[in-house]
From TrEMBL, chain A:
Pathways per UniProt: Carbohydrate degradation; glycolysis; D-glyceraldehyde 3-phosphate and glycerone phosphate from D-glucose: step 4/4
Catalytic activity, reaction form: beta-D-fructose 1,6-bisphosphate = D-glyceraldehyde 3-phosphate + dihydroxyacetone phosphate
This protein's name: Fructose-bisphosphate aldolase
UniProt family annotation: Belongs to the class I fructose-bisphosphate aldolase family.
Gene3D superfamilies assigned: Aldolase class I
EC number of the protein: 4.1.2.13
CDD domains hit by this protein: FBP_aldolase_I_a
TrEMBL record, chain B:
Keyword annotations from UniProtKB, A to Z: Glycolysis, Lyase, Schiff base
GO molecular function, one term: molecular adaptor activity
The name this protein goes by in its record: Fructose-bisphosphate aldolase
UniProt xrefs under Pfam families: Glycolytic
UniProt record, GO biological process: fructose 1,6-bisphosphate metabolic process; fructose catabolic process to hydroxyacetone phosphate and glyceraldehyde-3-phosphate; glycolytic process; negative regulation of pentose-phosphate shunt; vacuolar proton-transporting V-type ATPase complex assembly
InterPro entries: Aldolase_I_AS, Aldolase_TIM, FBA_I
Coiled-coil region list: none
Lineage of the species this protein comes from: Eukaryota, Metazoa, Chordata, Craniata, Vertebrata
Family: Belongs to the class I fructose-bisphosphate aldolase family.
Gene expressing this chain: ALDOB
């Protein structure tokens, strides 16, 4: 092995580590407000609103105008490129509004998925070209963390070894480049919930994917203390006939993470996938009550699961703005509690009653 | 990805996990008494005792017949093949003596190194042939864990990618086979201390090696909760002119483990690798006092660092039995304290305790 060539100085490492810890401070999680123009089209059409830049701006304003109550439950907000350069009605850039609340600003940097030839419809994610220059600019413009989403799916022959290897590698390249520019990379290897596979299958695949991701991060000399992980929870496929409790989902999820995610990673911020707002909160809560030892923060990076109620309360109407903002604050506070295992709502998982539903971990 | 074929049943997993936890419970560690015939030859020569089977048996008998309270410090003993089938002078099997004291019996399984052609003197480890049958027999004969030592060195172009990959792969194969036969595999990827490299270089190499080991274990479907890790501490090379404190060694060591060893691994039992008895204890203590979070037990699996004083006290004479036992028990208790971060340096340890036990290019 040749001489060591440190990728980062001690100061660079400290900066990255501090940013990561701020985002996942106890009780805090991330608002994923980085929907692309195309994704926003879907959201807005569901509430009968036209997908214009102005409407997208107004909608994000509904979220960002939340009052100081979100300071204790939101540690970071992920922006889409367009939004990073938009302002509120008061002329204050959204970036400043968020930073003034003590919340870290993040930016989506991937450029979407592309097909992997010779596979069963699998993809990798593009966006590496000129990434260093883009990161340097985003850092100047107020971003301190970034997000890059890779996608894998479960079927008879997927994810294939190629898809796992390629997506892990591209995530590691992205992470390395971010860190060179003072940006904390959120690493997102999402395994879609599409399919009829059961919980065990998802756990098995998740463990394989995460092991590959962390090997790639090691190979690319990524400083783990200055990263965050954004994985799927371990759940059955949407079409799976068996139902599982939040405790089973929690046990499978935490087992998978314990076997693959080094303790140096400061935080795991789950994506909500297709879960409803309440489901996403209840599952996160169960995860934080799981009796297995958990050396990282376990919190949220939710898009739909934080915004669904706010979106439908807003319906594009100015008059509905404060009601919509309230809906968002409500979900943010609930998830802040869930990130500490303190959420008592939902009925199913109330205190001691929920504990007995955990199954002995050796079965996972 | 092909359908999942579980490597182990829930019952098998539970058995392995229980054994592993028992070995490292409450500050207990491991006595590595598995020196091969050749290696015992080196040890006995130092105290001018002839290397006969009877002498080897006598020395082991003295150690194993100490008072039962030894089981508060020693959770497991690794035996060499010959020793597993030896008895004390009353005709009682050593393995039964140990088990009755509540100590788990382990067995060395590797069969030494073989050169890797095209490298700078690097090796792979043999022993996979017929390993499953050997494990099954050892399990019947009283063993509940195995040990396999891979060796990597820091030198020009070393460790090479090939050496890392090949040794990680063999360790994973060995671990998989052990678990199929109800034996907990101790995974030992030793980066030897020969050389003049500094602490940082050893840390860099150790991180790469451990990342490769855990990727290989994952690839081979090894159940991490039913394994133990036996790594080197992160130290400078023996010929390094810069000196480091136990706290520096501790921080480098725990940081390395933090970045590579999943929390699912129940225990990490360090090898002593030529450190004096006292240094091995002081370093282990500093490791357990290190302020980083430590989700695994951090204990010892010491050979030389538990036996040096005992050997010197024995000198091959039966009359020295009591002194030999006292010397051994003293080190065992000291290391148990260190494994809980409670060791208080006595300051009056004998000369043998402070003597460096370094042997260049140490092989068993």
């Amino acid at each position: 092995m040749p001489q060591v060539y440190p990728a980062l100085s001690a100061e660079q490492k400290k900066e990255l580590s501090d940013i990561a810890l701020r985002i996942v401070a106890p009780g805090k999680g991330i608002l994923a407000a980085d929907e692309s123009v195309g994704s926003m089209a879907k959201r807005l059409s569901q509430i009968g609103v036209e997908n214009t830049e102005e409407n997208r701006r107004q909608y994000r304003q509904v979220l960002f105008s939340a009052d100081g109550r979100i300071k204790k439950c939101i540690g970071g907000v992920i922006f889409f490129h367009e939004t990073l350069y938009q302002k509120g009605d008061d002329g204050v850039p959204f970036v400043r509004t968020i930073q003034d609340k003590g919340i870290v600003v993040g930016i989506k940097v991937d450029k979407g998925v592309v097909a992997l030839a010779g596979t069963d419809g699998e993809t990798t994610t593009q966006g590496l070209d000129g990434l260093s220059e883009r990161c340097a600019q985003y850092k100047k413009d107020g971003a301190d963390f970034a997000k890059w989403r890779c996608v894998l799916k479960i079927s008879d022959h997927t994810p294939s070894p190629l898809a796992i290897l390629e997506n892990a590698n591209v995530l590691a390249r992205y992470a390395s480049i971010c860190q060179q520019n003072g940006i904390v990379p959120i690493v997102e290897p999402e395994i879609l919930p599409d399919g009829d596979h059961d919980l065990k299958r998802c756990q098995y695949v998740t463990e394989k994917v995460l092991a590959a991701v962390y090997k790639a991060l090691s190979d690319h000399h990524v400083y783990l203390e200055g990263t965050l992980l954004k994985p799927n929870m371990v759940t059955p496929g949407h079409a799976c006939p068996f139902k599982y409790t939040p405790e089973e989902i929690a046990m499978a999820t935490v087992s998978a993470l314990r076997r693959t995610v080094p303790p140096a990673v400061p935080g795991v911020t789950f994506l909500s996938g297709g879960q409803s707002e309440e489901e996403a909160s209840i599952n996160l809560n169960a995860i934080n009550r799981c009796p297995l030892p958990r050396p990282w923060a376990l919190t949220f990076s939710y898009g739909r699961a934080l915004q669904a109620s706010a979106l439908s309360a807003w319906r594009g109407q100015r008059d509905n703005e404060s009601a919509a903002t309230e809906e968002f604050i409500k979900r943010a506070e609930v998830n802040g509690l869930a990130a500490q295992g303190k959420y008592e709502g939902g009925g199913e998982d109330a205190g001691a009653a929920g504990q007995s539903l955990y199954i002995a971990n050796h079965a996972y | 990805m092909a359908h999942r074929y579980p490597a182990l049943t829930p019952e098998q997993k539970k058995e392995l996990s229980d054994i592993a936890k028992r070995i490292v419970a409450d500050g207990k560690g491991i006595l590595a008494a598995d020196e091969s015939v050749g290696t015992m030859g080196n040890r006995l020569q130092r105290i001018k005792v002839e290397n006969t089977e009877e002498n080897r048996r006598q020395f082991r008998e003295i150690l194993f017949s100490v008072d039962k309270s030894i089981s508060q410090s020693i959770g497991g003993v690794i035996l060499f093949h010959e020793t597993l089938y030896q008895k004390d002078s009353q005709g009682k099997w050593f393995r039964d003596i140990l088990k009755e004291k509540g100590i788990v019996v382990g067995i060395k399984l590797d069969q030494g190194g073989a050169p890797l052609a095209g490298t700078n003197g690097e090796t792979a480890i043999q022993g996979l042939d017929g390993l499953s049958q050997r494990c099954a027999q050892y399990k019947k004969d009283g063993a509940d864990f195995g040990k396999w030592r891979a060796v990597l060195k820091i030198a020009d172009q070393c460790p090479s990618s090939l050496a890392i990959q090949e040794n990680a792969n063999a360790l994973a194969r060995y671990a998989s086979i052990c678990q199929q036969n109800g034996l907990v595999p101790i995974v030992e990827p030793e980066v030897i201390p020969d050389g003049d490299h500094d602490l940082e270089h050893c840390q860099y190499v150790s991180e790469k090696v451990l990342a490769a080991v855990y990727k290989a274990l994952n690839d081979h479907h090894v159940y991490l909760e039913g394994t133990l890790l036996k790594p080197n501490m992160v130290t400078a090379g023996h010929a390094c002119t810069k000196k480091y404190t136990p706290e520096q060694v501790a921080l480098a060591t725990v940081t390395t483990l933090h970045r590579t060893v999943p929390a699912a691994v129940p225990g990490i039992c360090f090898l002593s690798g030529g450190m004096s008895e006292e240094d091995a204890t002081l370093n282990l203590n500093a490791i357990n006092l290190c302020p980083l979070p430590k989700p695994w037990k951090l204990s010892f699996s010491y050979g030389r660092a538990l036996q040096a004083s005992a050997l010197a006290a024995w000198g091959g004479k039966a009359a020295n039995r009591k002194a030999t036992q006292e010397a051994f028990v003293k080190r065992a208790q000291a290391n148990c304290q260190a494994a809980k971060g409670q060791y208080v340096h006595s300051g009056s340890s004998g000369s043998a305790a402070s003597q460096s036990l370094f042997t260049p290019s140490y092989t068993y």
